[in-house]
Specification:
The protein is α+β, with helices and mostly antiparallel strands. It is built from one helix and seven strands. The protein has two domains: 33 residues, no CATH class; 73 residues, no CATH class. The strands form three sheets. Strands 5-6-7 form a three-stranded antiparallel sheet. Strands 1-2 form a two-stranded antiparallel ribbon.
Length: 125
């Protein structure tokens, strides 16, 4: 008997020497594959650590919203607030100086901002 590793699920299992040249079903994932030689199972490599990123917006479900505020760690989803963009304010000032009747066009240039319900911090995205 020898220990082998499944190439699909990487789980180690024991097979008899008679089964070595023939196809074998993995007892864990039930995939069919052929064992080539008496090689020990490959060493398990831990996945690389995941770095925290900025807030992610995922569609809300009833069990988990998929959101966590990076500042206060609140799990309730943020609300969307519409405000005049920076380009809108620049346009407003430029039109106020050059063409007074059209200065209000800058106020129509809006952007959506996501705000945390708990701490009120503006979030990206």
């Amino acid at each position: 008997m020898a220990t082998f590793a499944c190439p699909y699920c990487q789980q180690a299992f024991v097979a008899t020497a008679a089964a070595v040249p023939a196809p074998v079903n993995c007892p864990h994932c039930h995939q069919l594959f052929e064992i080539a030689s008496h090689a020990p199972p490959p060493p398990r490599v831990a996945p690389p650590p995941v770095r925290p990123t900025a807030a992610k917006f995922v569609a809300a479900t009833s069990a988990n919203t998929g959101f966590e505020c990076p500042f206060c760690h609140e799990h309730s989803p943020p609300y969307r607030k519409s405000q005049v963009s920076t380009a809108g304010w620049v346009t407003l000032i430029a039109l106020l100086i050059t063409c007074l009747p059209l200065f209000w066009v800058g106020l129509l240039m809006k952007e959506d901002v996501h705000v945390c319900r708990s701490c009120g911090i503006k979030l990206g995205g």
